[in-house]
Amino acid sequence: EFEDSILEDLAILGIQGDALSHTSDHFQVIYEYALELIRRGLAYVDDSPLEEMREGRMHGIESKCRRLSVEENLARFQQMKEATEFGQKCCLRAKMSIDNNNKAMRDPTIYRCNLTPHHRTGSVWKVYPLYDFACPIVDSIEGVTHALRSSEYRDRNPQYQWFFSALDLRPVQIMDFSRMNFAYTLLSKRKLQWFVDQGRVPGWDDPRFPTVRGIKRRGMTIEALRQYVLMQGASQRDMLLDWDKIWAMNKKVIDPKAPRHTALVKHGLVPTTIDGPSEAYLGSVLKHKKAAELGTKNTVFSSQIFIGQDDAAELAVGEELTLMDWGNAIVEKIEKIE
Question: Can you tell me the mean pLDDT for 87-97?
Answer without folding.
Answer: 97
